[in-house]
Design goal:
The protein is mainly alpha-helical. It has helices at about 5-35, 40-50, 50-55, 60-75, 75-85, 95-110, 115-125, 130-140, 150-155, 165-180, 185-195, 200-214.
Length: about 210
């Protein structure tokens, strides 16, 4: 009989531990449904107004989730303001890199040099050598419009087997050939990239680039 109270106590402890995770899951699934349905403002309102959401998610998690929602909404003004605000907070290196890299790729696509400069500064502080090297290469190609990484990416391309990885490298090589005004090679690589990245956001972007060549 003495084992019964202990068993009950352990059960209650396990329930008390599980409840916050269950609540988190239910709340986040509710928010995700709104995001997937394109109801971004409703999702943002829920994140900002729900007391229960604020109770079970940390300040960093709330900011990160809100930032991801603004990115899905493509609200550049809010993305810029919130990312700068978060990066001014007391973050660990992993968190700082997560925020900086998340928004860096967004502003690379829009070729916002000022924001890319700011975010790349944080990436250099918080990222590892490989991450920093890759992000600096993207800056050279997409912001500075340079073409010095063609040979390195062509060599890397030989090692890849994943279709999306191959397509991304072909895209970056093609853009560099565009940067150096070699339209024949740009057309060759971008057409290959278009086929490999079909069904991704890059497909439309590559079609636009190819339209400018012809």
């Amino acid at each position: 009989m003495e084992a019964l109270p202990i068993l009950i106590l352990l059960t209650l402890i396990l329930i008390s531990i599980a409840i916050p995770f269950i609540i988190r899951s239910l709340l986040w699934n509710s928010i995700l449904k709104k995001i997937y349905a394109g109801k971004y403002d409703q999702a943002i309102d829920q994140m900002n107004q729900s007391k229960l959401y604020r109770l079970v998610f940390s300040e960093y998690e709330r900011n990160y989730n809100l930032l991801r929602t603004y990115i899905s909404k493509k609200d550049a003004k809010q993305i810029q303001a919130l990312s700068i605000h978060i990066l001014q907070m007391d973050l660990n290196r992993k968190q700082a890199y997560q925020i900086a890299s998340l928004t860096y790729f967004y502003f690379l696509e829009s070729e916002n040099k000022e924001m890319c400069d700011t975010l790349l500064h944080h990436i250099r502080i918080s990222g590892d050598v490989q991450e920093i090297g890759y992000d600096e290469m993207l800056y050279r190609i997409l912001i500075e419009k340079k073409s010095e990484d063609i040979l390195a990416l062509e060599e890397l391309l030989k090692e890849k087997t994943d279709k999306d990885d191959i397509g991304m490298l072909q895209y970056l090589i093609g853009v560099q050939y565009l940067n150096k005004k070699d339209l024949k090679q740009a057309n060759l690589y971008l057409n290959k990239a278009k086929n490999n990245l079909k069904g991704t956001p890059y497909h439309k972007k590559i079609n636009k680039l190819l339209g400018g060549i012809s």
